Amino acid sequence: MSPVDGGVEVVVDKVSKSFEDGRIQALVDVSLRLQPGDFVSLTGPSGCGKSTLLNLIGALDRPDSGSISVGGRRLESLENPAGYRAGTVGFVFQFHNLIPTLTALENVQVPMFGRGLTRRGREERARLLLEECALGHRLKSHPSTLSGGERQRVAVARALANDPPLLLADEPTGALDSATGAQIVALLLALREQRGMTILLVTNDGDVAEEADRTLRLRDGRVVEGRAVPGSVSGSVPGTAGGLTRAAGPRSA
Ligand SMILES: Nc1ncnc2c1ncn2[C@@H]1O[C@H](COP(=O)(O)OP(=O)(O)OP(=O)(O)O)[C@@H](O)[C@H]1O
Ligand SMILES: [Mg+2]
């Protein structure tokens, strides 16, 4: 796979996050680095902190300690987290979270509101994005009339609404059969090639994880291993520059 221009660098530095007054340590000293254009999968057992990490990188929540920077901007000192989320990050979730009363074309426009586009401009952009996601023939369809894979493709188009350099996907294939899931991953790979996004994809499907340049594994709130693919954009492994590091030792609660 050849390096791709575009996307942003994501640096997570010794990030910890706990819940319930420290009784639940969701992330413990997690450090990792994604290069611009990286496509990295994140795996690990249920409850190990994958969604927590995505939420922190997406500025939906804040770490207790450590720092995260995206494209050189430190998230802890963002003046406008909502602006960062809208302009820099696209989210795709396991369950598409589309608005049932809106058509595909309308759903894709939702993140575009308040960003200075005319109605025609929004519609045109949404149409192009849906075409890019091979759904140009279902613009006027409501989510309930679409298949699971088609809905998830609308969700991907919506995530791209503001042309984000970073796509965070939390088990986007988790509710799909393996063939349909493979189509979503193929779409993400194609979009990365065309647009040069950085993609962090949470998955528990080994076949899906294998498609990425690298796989990071979380266990008990720590990054415990990574698989590097030769020739990838940044084929780094744990403990090496450009890869990820971790603090050793058991999880304490
Ligand atoms: N808002 C919260 N309040 C309390 N505990 C939370 C909260 N969010 C997450 N947790 C806990 O933090 C830990 C990590 O949760 P997280 O959702 O990140 O796991 P995950 O790896 O995404 O799991 P899954 O594969 O099941 O989605 C879990 O023990 C979870 O119960
Ligand atoms: Mg999760």
Protein model, in words:
This protein is an alpha/beta fold. The chain has a single domain (about 10-245), classed as Rossmann fold (3-Layer(aba) Sandwich). It is about 30% helix and about 25% strand. The chain has 7 helices and 11 strands. Strand 4 (about 65-70) and strand 5 form a beta hairpin. Helix 5 runs parallel beside helix 6. The longest helix is centred in the C-terminal third of the chain and has 18 residues, at about 180-195. It is globular, with a radius of gyration of 18 Å. Bound molecules: adenosine-5'-triphosphate and magnesium ion. Adenosine-5'-triphosphate binds near residues 19 and 49. The site of magnesium ion has 3 residues, from helix 1.
Percent range for β-strand residues: 15-25%
Q: Provide the gyration radius in Å.
A: 18 Å
N-to-C SSE series? Answer: EEEHEEHEHHHEHEHEEE
Counting helices, strands and paired strands, the structural category is alpha/beta
Note the main sheet. 6 strands, mixed
CATH superfamily, please?
P-loop containing nucleotide triphosphate hydrolases
CATH topology: Rossmann fold
| CATH architecture annotation name | 3-Layer(aba) Sandwich
Please mark out the parts with pLDDT under 50 across 5 or more consecutive residues, or reply none: 230-253
Q: Could you report the average pLDDT, rounded to the nearest whole number?
A: 87
Number of helices: 7
In CATH, what is the class?
Answer: Alpha Beta
Number of domains: 1
Kindly report how far apart the N and C termini lie: 41 Å
Shape descriptor reads: globular
Spatial strand sequence of the major β-sheet:
6-7-8-3-9-10
Q: What small ligands are held by the chains? A: adenosine-5'-triphosphate, magnesium ion
Q: Report the count of strand segments.
A: 11
Helix share, percent: 25-40%
